[in-house]
Amino acid sequence: MVDKEAVLDTILSQGILPLFFYEDASVSLEITRTLYKAGVRALEYTNRGKEALANFRIIKQAVAADMPGMYLGIGTIKTGLEAEAFVDAGADFIVSPIIDSEVAQVASSYKLLYIPGCMTPSEIHVAQQYKAMLIKLFPANILGPAFVSSIRELFPGQLFVPTGGVELEADNISAWFRSGVCAVGLGSKLISKKVLDERLYDKLYADTTKALELVQLSK
């Protein structure tokens, strides 16, 4: 049984939550290995293609064998059936772009960390009814750090992670942390299509190291 407090603590301590999907399983695996070598210990693989479940199983096997201390979560989960399938494949936590009662129920029944996506104060309130310890603010590029600054006093103690358009730049990352978030989600700004298509693993390693350093300076 995965300890959801340990998963949450890992996300908070590293301060970033990398996320990606790629059709090719071998590339997906090498991306995961590169992130791990750079210091990442919590990663979100996203359910954004027909290969996602099979790829996830392959990555999970490698994580269990070769990457001690790594938590592998699944993102872009929108239905209870999807959640069940990936829990069966070994997902350590569940991330969603929306709030869905069935997904919340699956996460609760397996005692997994559930990170629902919210864009409004009303949605944040609903997510809290499902006991979401960490809430994803999505899309972050539309909301911006000012949104967090404006609403955080309404939800004292609530942890937020903005995802979708967070830039790999010192000014942008520090602005998010100043606004009150506890971590930032990094997708295509870190693991770009170019990095994936051209297998730019050295670049990814360098950029991930930079992101982890920027976050530590911003906290």
From TrEMBL:
GO terms for molecular function: lyase activity. It comes from the Bacteria. Pathway: Carbohydrate acid metabolism. Gene3D superfamilies: Aldolase class I. Signal peptide: none annotated. Keywords: Carbohydrate metabolism, Lyase. InterPro entries: Aldlse_KDPG_KHG, Aldolase_TIM. Pfam families: Aldolase. Belongs to the KHG/KDPG aldolase family. Homotrimer. This is Bifunctional 4-hydroxy-2-oxoglutarate aldolase/2-dehydro-3-deoxy-phosphogluconate aldolase.
